[in-house]
Amino acid sequence: MKTRIFLSILIIAGLFILGATLRVDLSGAANGPAPRVTAIKQVTHDGVRKASLLAGDSSLFVTELPTRNRIIAKVALPGSERSVLPTPFSSLQALDVSSDHTRLLISSTSASSGENEFWTLPVSSGKPARVGDLGGRDASWSADGRQLVFAKDSNLFVANADGGQAHKIYSASGSVFAAHFSPDDQKIRFTVSDTEQNATSLWEVGRDGANAHPLLADWPLKATACCGSWTADGKYYIFQASQNISSTNLVVTSLWALSESTTTSADSAPYQITAGPMSFGNAFPAHDNKNIWAIGVQPTAEVVKYDARKKQFVPLIPGLSATDVDFSRDGKWIVYVSIPEGTLWKSRANGSDRLQLTTDSERAALPHWSPDGKQIAYASLKPGSSWKLALVSANGGDSHEMLAENGSQVDACWSADGERLMFGEFNRDENGIKIQILNFRTKEISTVPGSEGLFSPRWSPNGRYIAAMSPKGTDMMLFDFNTQKWTTWITEPAGAFSYPSWSADSQYLYFDDLVTGTEAVRRVKVGTNQPEPVFELGDLERYMGAFGLWSGQAAGGSFMFVKDRSTQEVYQLSVELR
Description:
Layout: H1 2-12, E1 36-42, E2 50-55, E3 59-64, E4 71-76, E5 82-84, E6 92-97, E7 103-109, E8 116-122, E9 129-135, E10 137-141, E11 147-152, E12 155-160, E13 167-171, E14 175-181, E15 187-194, E16 199-206, E17 213-214, E18 226-230, E19 236-245, E20 250-259, E21 271-272, E22 279-285, E23 291-298, E24 301-307, E25 312-315, E26 322-327, E27 333-338, E28 344-348, E29 355-356, E30 363-369, E31 375-381, E32 388-393, E33 400-401, E34 408-414, E35 420-427, E36 432-439, E37 445-447, E38 455-459, E39 465-469, E40 475-480, E41 485-491, E42 498-502, E43 508-513, E44 520-525, E45 532-536, E46 551-553, E47 559-564, E48 567-576
Antiparallel strand pairs: 1-48, 2-3, 3-4, 4-5, 6-7, 7-8, 8-9, 10-11, 11-12, 12-13, 14-15, 15-16, 16-17, 18-19, 19-20, 20-21, 22-23, 23-48, 24-25, 24-47, 26-27, 27-28, 28-29, 30-31, 31-32, 32-33, 34-35, 35-36, 36-37, 38-39, 39-40, 40-41, 42-43, 43-44, 44-45, 46-47
């Protein structure tokens, strides 16, 4: 259940997921008249969270999240009358619509196995039918309706439409989703998610698994491209990609059109067809080639903390639209990243005496106070660059990058005495991912022994341990400074160790488990390997930030999350596709 919900959010308003976001130069786009949007019309006005969008001849089928469970709403055109499709499922998602628009391909979680199952659902009347014994993610039909393609973990499968003869055609280096046949059924395009690099990429493979290769390999925004589908005539591939708009510092997800006549040539840059201020994603080209249906997002959020006594979430500071909150050691001050601007701010714990610490052209993430409360280390993203660690005075003033290296750096962790700073680094030219420690007194940088390939490091408050994740995110590793050795602490499914944090006494590691049953905060004690639940998050709808679904601890140890208050509505984009 939670895996499916997480990936749906990733697809839509991942929209806001960043690799290294850049301001793109469109001068390399193919010659000739560019495709363009001529009009934008809002179709829905219900304020309900939306997770996918399909279009028939006279109706839209929208997967909605009015509560914790998902439903499929039918929106009749042109009047936008809304009705809910009746089903026996407690939660489901629309994946595809048949060529005659009489059936939907849907997924629902099995109560017994917890795996996503594929079903067909009649649009007008009739009972749903199971598609063989298939299970996985993001299935879709071929144009002739005889086959379907679906993903399962890092593998891509093709099967007959009835579920028979399923066979793997490709294994990727990351999670696979959003796979679709081309209109001529000769090739398949899909998205691969790289959780280590917080990036996505578009790939193509023949229907028989031959000639697998990435699309847009030299395109500046390739690390944010995802979730595409072809126009009905097969002339364009419509997808989404995110970029940082330097003049406003907003991260906007735009729709792009890749001409099929140029995909095999050097002159193959896509055309940008939306450019903010609203983000658009989950595009579904209409069958008339004159319109594109898409979900438009206006981002806003609220920081909440869990009140263990009341067993409910309450606002940290009413009206604060922010993420990545960190408290000073004395609990009197906070530093946070504003949403949607992405700028770094400081204020008192009650929200008063606000001070902006970074410029509007810089995007900030994951700030942490120094133990003496005088400085803040944070991840900085500037146009044309990757994430870099930076320092800024708590009193304001110019910030500065700490390292002159070419790699990306995130996850700053201060030593208890404030003399050292640990961080994760990725450098393609120098052994990839590793964990580094910067000594401010000696100016030396050292690599934690055996940390190659590990990421998301967390230094225990007593200074003895480092907790970090394995390359696939399935193992929580523990480094003991006394023995100078790493051991595998616990093993869980990928996605179970979101935003780990130590208890103040260094006895427990807490983590936000997104995938193991009901979403919950769990913890494991040093010296044991059996995690235990702390509390469940219930139906809290969370905001997807620059580095996923953020969580942290407030002064006093209560847990903080970011509640999504964004508006998501369906829009009709009238287009001219040359």
